[in-house]
Design a protein that fits this description.
It is a single chain. By secondary structure, the chain is α+β, with helices and mostly antiparallel strands. The protein contains ten helices and four strands, in the order H-H-H-E-H-H-H-E-E-H-H-H-E-H. It has a four-stranded antiparallel sheet. A hairpin with a 6-residue loop joins strand 2 and strand 3. The protein is rod-shaped, with a radius of gyration of 56 Å.
Length: 371
């Protein structure tokens, strides 16, 4: 009989399974017992957990994300740092625990804290030594908190270095400008030139007044001479003497007038030159003063901006604080004997039933073949 005939005469699976129930039960019990017995020889694993609070700033631009902190923890540098801190208390791990092994022992869970924008980050560590995994979990959390602080300090130092460089540059320029102003003032001697200019203006005013008075005297004396000439034949001795005196006075006044005119012309020529010179000096000093004021204003603005930038950068860096330390675990999380037994029971039962059905199918096929 061929396979088609065998398939047309199927056996009842329930009847087959019921008839082989004792064999299936015995196989299941043996397999389950063997699995349970074998699980007792498996090494026990414990789990320790520490939790940190990650305070995310309102303006998180330019900050490290949570995934970045997770990646940071799993870097070789951080993992080796954890190992180095553990060696004094656990010297036996020096030659057995390495960053790659430690990476496999640590798992990270994150979740949002209720009622805030902060996040909770938990470090779960599995291993056979309860004290060691407790210390690994706590050391990892502490080290991440320190690294976060170092990142913040590094930002502050970078800003401070940049600000100090600008401060020094502006301070140097300010000193040079002040030194230049002192040098120019010393060379210009502006106060003495201004005093000389005021003195020239005063002398010019005095000379103009004297010239005016001299003109009046000349007019008076000239009028006398004219009058004496008109009555020359009738002059008395006194008038003759006065006429002579008037002539001498006029000559003297004319000499003084020429001197005054010459002095006035010289002063009028010198005053504008000195005035232009002092104006140029004043302008030069004012320009340097404006430069000094601009540098001082820039210096104070830079100081205020640097302080505001430091505060802003500090607020942009997430703060990480340890809020829950890992404690020494007393109950293993692996192997889970109940779970292991249930899985072994189900698998052995399925295998036993499958074996019974397969055996019945093969027996039926053999019988039809013999017929």
């Amino acid at each position: 009989m061929d396979m088609e005939q065998i398939q047309n005469n199927p056996t009842d699976p329930l009847v087959t399974l019921w008839s082989a129930k004792w064999a299936i039960l015995i196989f299941t019990l043996i397999a389950t017992g063997t699995a349970v017995l074998g699980s007792s020889f498996l090494p026990k694993e414990f789990e320790a957990k520490s939790t940190v609070l990650v305070s995310i700033p309102a303006d998180s631009t330019g900050t490290l994300s949570i995934s970045s902190y997770e990646d940071l923890v799993m870097t070789s540098g951080i993992l080796q740092g954890v190992i180095d801190r553990l060696i004094p208390n656990h010297p036996d791990i020096k030659n057995s625990l390495f960053p790659k092994i430690l990476e496999g022992m640590i798992s990270i869970d994150t979740g949002k804290a209720k009622g805030s924008k902060s996040l909770l980050m938990s470090f779960r560590v599995r291993g056979r030594n309860p004290l060691l995994i407790r210390d690994i979990s706590n050391t990892t959390a502490n080290l991440l908190s320190e690294v976060s602080g170092q990142i913040k300090k590094s930002k502050m130092k970078s800003i401070a270095d940049s600000s100090n460089t600008q401060f020094l540059s502006i301070k140097t320029s300010l000193r040079e400008a002040e030194k230049n102003l002192k040098t120019i003032r010393a060379e210009n001697k502006l106060p003495s030139l201004l005093a000389e200019l005021f003195s020239m203006k005063d002398r010019l005013s005095v000379f103009n007044y004297e010239l005016t008075m001299l003109e009046v005297q000349l007019n008076v004396e000239s009028a006398k001479l004219v009058a004496y000439k008109e009555i020359k034949s009738e002059l008395s001795d006194f008038m003759k003497k006065d006429n002579i005196r008037a002539g001498i006075t006029i000559k003297t006044l004319l000499v003084k007038k020429n001197l005054l005119i010459k002095s006035i012309k010289q002063l009028k020529k010198m005053i504008p030159l000195l005035k232009n010179k002092t104006m140029a000096m004043r302008l030069e000093e004012r320009q340097i003063n404006r430069k000094i004021l601009a540098l001082e204003e820039q210096f104070f603005m830079l100081s205020n901006n640097a302080q505001e930038t430091r505060i802003a950068e500090a607020e942009k860096t997430a703060d990480i604080k340890l809020i829950s330390k890992a404690i020494e675990p007393h109950f293993p999380v692996s192997p889970n004997r109940v779970k292991f037994s249930l899985i072994a029971l189900v698998l052995s039962l399925v295998v036993g039933m499958a074996a019974a059905l397969a055996k019945e199918h093969l027996d039926t096929a053999r019988q039809y073949t013999l017929k």
